[in-house]
Design a protein that fits this description.
eight-stranded parallel β-barrel, alpha/beta, 326 residues, disordered N terminus, two-stranded antiparallel sheet
Amino acid sequence: MSSPEPTHALPGIPSLGYGAANVGNLFRELSDDDAWAVLDAAWESGIRYYDTAPHYGLGLSERRLGAFLQTKPRDEFVLSTKAGRLLRPNPEHAGGLDTANDFHVPDDLRREWDFSADGIRTSLDESRERLGIERIDLLYLHDPERHDLDLALAEALPAMEQLRADGEVTAIGIGSMVSDALAAAVRSADLDLVMVAGRYTLLEQPAAAEVLPACREHGTGIVAASVFNSGLLAASEPRRDGRYEYGQLPDELWDRLVRIAAVCADHDVPLPAAAIQFPLQAAEVRSVVVGGSRPAQLRQNAEYAALGIPAALWENLAAEGLIPAA
């Protein structure tokens, strides 16, 4: 199904993006050279949308991504980062790592929530400094429900609307794993895009109930992230012991995953390719953002994104009740 023309800003966002949490040492440490090789593989594979956040590695992701993108023509890529958490010195730092947040970086900084207008503007300015890039195309409010969703709707999002009106950013949105928060933000603010993390995937689509209809009504685009469901969909033969978010995979989801994998196999379509391309079947979805900590992963994901998938695959999945009917 073809996507309608976006009614908001940033209509040219590429359909495949790189989520740069891994170059912030998510789950494991990467050297600067390793991180550069990952970003170089993304670029050479044709990826031209890059998403980061202060949260990712306490600023390390922004610094590494910015250093890389400074070597590229600015008009050839789209860049997004996030606001809501300011990075400040951690007085309790005693040589430890930020592994409580899954980042293998020194915990010499700490995250401080700030949804005020000054806090949002400060976050943008400090991200620019870490990135070394003045022009931020897209600014998301990051995980607002983890702090105070009501305050986000009342203060942070209006502040971001003002930044857009002032020409400080091209487009604004929120990023969240919580469908209720996403839908509430779409209905209360004039957002260009929302980043839906793990809630509109080949395996599960809770965002289809509220978020997609709200976006359709308000002309808001969607960027789908975490489309591999913590890696469950990253290989054509799923593993029963795979991680699901923060715990074990429930039996009902495992059964669903086995059925989805079987349909993909019947059509000779790699499961990860279907996982990347599924969200884009919805008219509201503008882009899919994938991560990766190895160059080969980025090259493979770009190939999966470009792979021809027969319409019969989606039709069969829908007929079995595994994805929403078109």
